[in-house]
Amino acid sequence: MKLVEFLNSIIKDDGFLLVDADMNKHLIGQPKKENPITLKILDKTLHNKLVFLPDLYFGEAYTNGSVIIENGTLTEFLDIALRNIGRNETNSFNAAINKIRGTYRFLTNFNLKKKSKSNVAHHYDISEKLYDLFLDEKRQYSCAYFKNETDSLEEAQNNKIEHIIKKLNLKPNQKVLDIGSGWGSLAIEIAKKSQCEILGVTLSENQYKHSVEKVKASGLENQVRFSLTDYRDLNEKFDRIVSVGMFEHVGRKFYNTYFNSVSKLLNEDGVALIHTIGSVNPPRDPHPWITKYIFPGGYTPSLSEVTKPIEKSGLMMSDLEVWRMHYAHTLRHWKERFLGKREQVLEMFDEKFLRMWEFYLAGCEMAFKWGDQVVFQMQLIKKHSAVPNTRDYIYR
Question: What are the C-alpha distances in Å from 28 to residues 33, 74, 365?
Fold first, then answer.
C-alpha cells in the first residue's frame, strides 16, 4: 500500500498505528507507547490523497471527520509527524503540487484594497465572542514574548508590548502610526506609557468598532484615534511606525509597495518596527490548507524576500530579532483555552468549525515547534542616528 510505504519513509522517530478504510492495521515507525496513537481512515479516497497532497487533504479530512485519532490527541499525532518532517517537504509529489498551486496563486492573487479588506473580514470579522474564548484580556492576536516558559499568556503578551515600546525608543509628543492595529490594545498601551499621539489603522470593521469603544472607555481620546483605512491611502508623516501581525497579509506582490509606503510615511529621523511571522527556509509556496480555510491572501516570507524591498525603499535594517519558540508557546495557550471552551464554541458554530480551528491552532503550534516558522522583528530607520548604537536602551 503506497500510503503505508509513504508514512514509513517519513516516520523514523516514534510512530503510530494506522487503521485504513478497509479496517487493515499497519504499524507505522516504531511507537514508543505500548498503546500507540491510532489514526483511523474512514474514506478510501484518502489512501491516495494523503500520499498525493497531505498538506491539504489531512486538514480537510480531520475537519470533516473522515480521519479519527484514538489513544491520543491531534496535538500528539502532529507532534510525531512534524518532528519527523521538520523543515522538509513531505514528498516530491507534495512539493510539486504545492509549487504549481503556489505559482497559480501568485499569478492570480492580488491583495488590492478591496481584496485585502475581504481577506481580513474572512478571519477577523467572524465573531467577537470567539476571540474572547482564547485570547488574553487585551485581545493580542499575535505572538507573545515568553521570558520564561512558565509565564502566563497575559504575562507574555504584556512582555511583548513592553519589548516593542522599548524598541520604538519613544520621545514625548511624537506621532506614532500602528498599521494593522487589531483590537487597539497596542496603540492604547503606547499612549498610557508615553506622551505620544497614536493613529491605528485597520481593515476589520469589527476591530475598528471595538477599538473606538475601548479608547473612549480608557479616556485617551486626546492621544489615540483609529481609522478604517488602508495604509496605502495615508499621506501623513510619523515619527514612529509599528506593525504587528499585519505583514503576513500583504502578499509577495506588494512588498515593494509596503516598504515604499513605510518609507514615505516615516520622518527622516524616525523608527519603524515590523513584527511578522516568517520562514527560516528559502522562499517556498504557502501552506494550501491554511490559505484555503484560515488566512486567504496570507503568506509568511523568508528573510531574503523582504531585504531587497527594504533596501530599494531607502530604509535600512538597524536591528533584527528572531523569535523561535515563542509562537509555539503562544499557540499552545490559545489551543488549550479554545478546547477548554468546547461547549461555548459549539453553541456559536458546529463540530466541523471546532475541528477546523483545533487543526489550525495545533498545526501551527507544531510548525513553530518543529518546522520553518519563526517571528521576525525588524527595526527600520533612514538615518544611523535614529537609534542608539547599542541595544542597551531596550533592556534597561
Answer: 13, 16, 23
How do residues 306-347 score in pLDDT, each as one tens digit?
999 999 999 999 999 999 999 999 999 999 999 999 999 999
**Dihedral, CA of residue 118, residue 124, residue 261 and residue 198, to nearest 10:** 140
For the record, the C-alpha cell of 125 comes out as: 470579522
Average pLDDT, the chain: 91
Q: Judge whether 312 and 259 are in contact, CB under 8 Å.
A: yes
Contacts of residue 164, Cβ cutoff 8 Å, sequence gap at least 6: 186, 242, 244, 273, 275, 377
Distance in angstroms (rounded) separating the CA atoms of residues 328 and 367:
8
> Mind telling me the catalytic residues?
364
The radius of gyration of the chain's CA atoms, rounded to the nearest angstrom, is 22
What are the tens digits of pLDDT across the range 39-53?
999 999 999 999 989
Q: Give the pLDDT confidence of 67-124 residue by residue, as tens digits.
A: 999 999 999 999 999 999 998 866 543 444 344 444 444 444 555 655 555 555 545 5
C-alpha distance from residue 30 to each of 11, 33, 39, 189, 356 (Å):
8, 9, 14, 50, 29
Q: Which three cell numbers stand for residue 215?
A: 479608547
Strand-by-strand arrangement of the 25-29 sheet: 25-29, 15-19, 38-41, 67-70
Please tell me whether residue 100 adopts helix, strand or coil conformation: helix
CATH number given to 2-105: 3.30.1050
Topology annotation, domain 113-395: Rossmann fold (3.40.50)
d(CA 263, CA 234): 12
**Sequence spans of domains, the chain:** 2-105, 113-395
Q: Is the pLDDT of residue 243 over 80?
A: yes
